[in-house]
Structures are given as structure tokens and as C-alpha cells.
Amino acid sequence: MSTKPDLTALVELTTTTQALLTQFLSTLSPPSAGSSAPSPTDQQPNIDALSLLKDASSLLKAHTTKLSLLLLNKPFTATAITRVLREITNTVIPAMMSGHQIVAVRSSAHTAPRIVEAEVRGRVRRVVSAVQEEVAETRAMAEEELQREGTGAQKPKRDALASTGLVWEACDALAELQSMGVVGLVVKKAEQWRATLLDAVEELKEWSEEEGEDDDEEDAGVGSDDEDSMDEMFGGGSDKKLPKDDKELREQLEKVLKKVKTVAVLYQALVKRRLKAYSVSAASEDKSQTEKLDQLLDILSSIPDQIDEVASAFYDLDGEEAKKVFADCCGNARKAADLVKQNWEGKDDEFTAWSAKFVEAMST
């Protein structure tokens, strides 16, 4: 059985642990504009950061399982729970923070893509947040034990710790980065952006095919309590349809849809000919390759947002705004194709000729 001093020590430990985890979460917050990145060093540690993060994730899952069993089974052994918590906060979480710091330094030195640092930061932050939830639950159970100490009251039944599953999911997501690798992560992001583009095409196409209601039907809908009418009254959905007789706007939309599909092909070509061919080891020797990759990914990530702006302009029946934003979008697509028209070794290949045709097609 746990003694009162043991329970008190455990409660105090959970308090200091939560404060420490809060500091870690602050460190892992997305950088604000103008904030300084970690200073790159010439002598970077020769450590596989993604493997370190995977190992730490596996160890945390093991400790979490042990902690869950200790909390749910009788007797409540405060000293054993304290040992597990100390292992988590003194060893495992600091190892994850170190893994992120290594990636952050390499990103600043242009030996690792920025997108990898952002992904590691987000996933480590998710782990720390989940652990913080579990520590809070541990504290609550320890306080219950402390209040019952010496009273003989029954321990309340708990089927499981809700936070345990969150920790496991977060650990699996973090460990996934090692199995994907840098190239796998970059490819996955590019494919996600391409999917977003194609979704926008389908939504615009469906919108253009919807038939607008006449004024009488719209007036009749005011005051009705059906779901569509409620959405329109409170700003849900677009209440503007593409007029059947607006041939100019329809033709403009058709051209946009066709070109967006061509941009989606660009994503496929870049994945196959450039992103999958990116070499982490070669980039570590030639920082310009990582810098170019960062520029390329910045462009590819911005295009879906621009397409969303184009769609919004069409929904507002603002052809001029749609034309203006889409021109910028096409410019970015041409810039992406031109940026890596040569391969990572600076030589021409099949993509070089294809990119020239793509730039020409996007210019017309």
C-alpha cells in the first residue's frame, strides 16, 4: 500500500512534470514571423534523428503501458508510478526534444528540408500534449488515493485511461517518419497537395453544373425550415449559381479547369522525376539542392491555396478577380517547373524537355 508521503511526493512530481511539459510545448510552438531559427553549426552530430525519434516513441509506448497497469490495478503503488514518470520526463521526452533540435539545426544549415523540421515539430508536440493529458489523469488518481488514505473508502472503478490511446497514436505517428524517410514525407506532401487541387476541380465543376433557382422559388424558401434554406440564411454554402447565359464566365471557368488539371499533371511529373530522385546524402554535401527543394515545396504548397481563392472568386461571380489570382497561380506553376528543369546534378533529362512544353502551355 502507498503511504501518505509517497502519495504526496507523486502529486508533487505530477505538478513539476506538467510545468516541464508546458515549457516543452512552448518550445515546440510554430515559429512566429521574425523569430530566429537555431544557429547552424559546422560540426553537426552524426545522429539519425528520425531513428532516434522512433526508438524514443517505442520506449514511451512501453512506459505508458506500464503506467496504465500500475494506475488501474490494485494496490495503488505510488513509488512505482513515480519511477515510471521520472523515466518518461527525464529520459524519453528529452530524447524526443533532442531529435527535433537536431532536425531544426540541420534545417537551418540547409542540410535537411524545412518541411521535415515542421513535421517533426508538429508530431513531437502531439506526443508531449498526449503525455501531458496522461500526467493530469495520474495526478487526479493520486489525489483521490491521498483523500481516501486511511479512510477505507473503495477505489472508484476505471476501465482504462483515455489518454493512453492518445499517447500510443501520437507515438505511432512520430515513428512513421522514420519508415517514410525524408523522400517519402516530401512525396506524401506533394501528393496531398495534388489531391487538394483535384478536389477543387471537382467542386468547381459540380458548382458550374448546378441549376440556379428562379426568384419565385427563392422567395418561397424564405421562412422555411429546411436545411438548405437555413444554410443560405446563415451564410452556409454559396447562394450564387453560375448563370446559364453567362457564356464568357463559363468559358473562363472551362479554361481554368483544364489548366488546373495540367498543373496536377505537373505534380505527378515532379514526384516521379524530381522528388523521388532527391538524395539526402547528396544534399548534405551540396546545400543548394536542399535550398532548391525548399523553394519548390513552398511553391507547391501555395498553389492549392491560390486555387481556393480562384474558386471563391468564381463563386462570387467575379471573373476579373478569378483571372487575376489564376494568373499568379499559373506563374507559380511555371516557376516550379523552371526551378527544377534540370535534375539534381544540374543535367538535362526527359523532364527538362517536358517542363519547357509545360511552361509554354501555361503561358497561353
UniProtKB/TrEMBL annotation:
- Acidic residues bias locations: 208-231
A Pfam family per the record: GCIP_N
Residues annotated as region Disordered? 205-245
Note the InterPro entries from the entry. GCIP-like (IPR026907), GCIP-like_N (IPR049317)
Q: Which GO terms describe its cellular component?
A: nucleus
Residue ranges of the Cyclin-D1-binding protein 1-like N-terminal domain?
A: 53-210
Q: What is this protein called?
A: Cyclin-D1-binding protein 1-like N-terminal domain-containing protein
Organism, scientific name: Aplosporella prunicola CBS 121167
